[in-house]
Write a structure and sequence with these properties.
CATH superfamily of the largest domain: Medium-chain alcohol dehydrogenases, catalytic domain
Order of helices and strands: EEEHEEEEHEHEHEEHEHEHHEHE
CATH class of the largest domain: Alpha Beta
Low-confidence stretches: none
Number of strands: 15
Helix content: 25-40%
Number of helices: 9
CATH architecture of the largest domain: Alpha-Beta Complex
CATH topology of the largest domain: Quinone Oxidoreductase, Chain A, domain 1
Strand content: 25-35%
Shape: globular
Structural class: alpha/beta
Length: about 300
């Protein structure tokens, strides 16, 4: 089978395709013939910044072709989506049953990778902020795979005003079409009227303006892999707070809660209330182009790899 790997830390130019044997599922694992693979910013960052090369994992969707010892929840022929911690950029990948969920009838693999993992991050981050109907919400990286779903979920949770923060003003029409009432760019001196809740997927230097955009008593939920620091004084002024959110921790320690989020996302999708957007599909061999799209912050919605053959 074909898979994508890298040996040297750096940019997308270090990705290459190789031929390797199809893996065998171990206890509790599914062997999945991948139909769609979601490209995420954390994985893109690993290629450029990790201390040493690691498997390119992440979200995937496809058909179960073989199951490992002790698996009873799934069978060959089932269509599933989930998070792969091993080699996920491949024609076949291993998915542990604890991270797998069924794809409902009528939904495609593309729908699954655009909706489930990114949607769980968006929904979990929003719930971590303890939203109340009528509050205002700011979403950074609002045109990203997670951000464009967070915008919609904030509106569905009864937000009175939803503000989209983006790096490029050319993304304004896209985020407005998804429910943003206002659009700000990162370089603006002021992000307008303060908000009750901030959802930050960027981190780094953007943490400071994101905190300062909060109203008194406002809550920021940080779920970025971009790091960054926050000055205590910025929290003390107005009694603001910051909460870190990591969806993998919830998946491991609160599986029922995680499953509830997935069920909610599929319900909203079936009702037509939540619209996952796919910016582009790339062949597996074009993984470098997919990563370059994410690094350039050029995507409007999800970037997806589609294995050939």
């Amino acid at each position: 089978m074909r898979r994508i790997r890298y040996e040297n830390i750096g940019g997308p130019e270090n990705l290459f395709q190789e031929e390797v044997p199809v893996p065998e599922p171990g206890a509790g694992e599914l062997l999945v013939r991948t139909e769609a693979i979601g490209v995420t910013l954390p994985v893109v960052r690993k290629v450029r910044e990790a201390a040493q090369p690691v498997p390119l994992g992440g979200e995937l969707a496809g058909e179960v072709v073989r199951v490992g010892e002790g698996v009873s929840e799934f069978a060959p022929g089932d269509r599933v989506t989930g998070l792969c911690f091993g080699h996920g950029y491949a024609q076949y990948a291993l998915l542990h049953t604890t991270m797998a969920t069924a794809i409902p009838e009528g939904a495609t693999a593309r729908d699954a990778v655009a909706l489930v993992r990114s949607g769980v991050v968006a929904l979990g981050a929003l719930e971590a902020a303890r939203p109340e109907r009528g509050e205002s919400v700011l979403v950074t990286a609002a045109a990203s795979g997670v951000g464009h779903l967070a915008l919609q979920l904030a509106r569905l949770h009864g937000a009175s005003r939803v503000v989209a923060a983006v790096g490029d003003p050319a993304k304004a029409d896209f985020v407005r079409a998804l429910g943003a009432d206002a659009v700000v760019t990162y370089d603006q001196e002021s992000w307008g009227e303060p908000v009750d809740i901030g959802l930050d997927a960027v981190g780094g230097e953007l943490l400071t303006p994101a905190v300062r955009a909060l109203a008194p008593g406002g809550r920021l939920v940080a779920y970025s892999s971009g790091g960054g620091t926050i000055a205590a004084y910025d929290l003390l002024v107005g009694g603001r707070s910051v909460t870190g959110f990591q969806v993998a921790l919830v998946a491991r320690t609160q599986p029922q809660r995680y499953a509830g989020w997935v069920a909610t996302l599929w319900r909203l999708f079936a009702e037509g209330a939540l619209r996952p957007a796919v910016h582009a599909e790339f062949a597996l061999a074009d993984a470098a182009r997919a990563h370059a799209t994410i690094e350039a912050r050029a995507n409007l919605g999800k970037v997806v790899l589609v294995p050939e053959g």
